[in-house]
Predict the structure.
Amino acid sequence: HEIEKEHRFKTFKENVEFIESFNKNGTQRYKLAINKYADLTTEEFTTSFMGLDTSLLSQQESTATTTSFKYDSVTEVPNSMDWRKRGSVTGVKDQGVCGCCWAFSAAAAIEGAYQIANNELISLSEQQLLDCSTQNKGCEGGLMTVAYDFLLQNNGGGITTETNYPYEEAQNVCKTEQPAAVTINGYEV
């Protein structure tokens, strides 16, 4: 127990030194700060929180359509776009130790697309995708496209709100009778 405590403290100090050095540089477009992961090494963080299971790619029978680039000229595309300033993204969400970034990113993409099309931002349920999109691997990883296919094939494209079906940081039994707050009719990759 004492050895683990010493390891965590040593890692924390090293990370604080890195953060201070990075922020002093002044050439970066962002700043680093201490958070709840500051006592983890990069390897520990990567192992725990950045799992992509590519085995799902070969198993998926996707309903996606593939389209060409939508702009005739790249001069029409702005150099940058801050969707936060346009109210198109929710606040930061935390998936915790459950490796379901696929559910968070799928819900966030739907939230943003819906807001842009309808001028209304609705926080959608990652937990519904985590519990019900069983072709994905729950907290062990998954794909956004598999989540979209689940919605299209089982829910008429509908997903409920985060308020109706809140995030629990674990995969649970699917609560099937949920009202759809937003409906998709397809997706593109």
The helical segments are 2-25, 42-49, 55-59, 101-118, 126-132, 144-154. The chain has a mean pLDDT of 88.
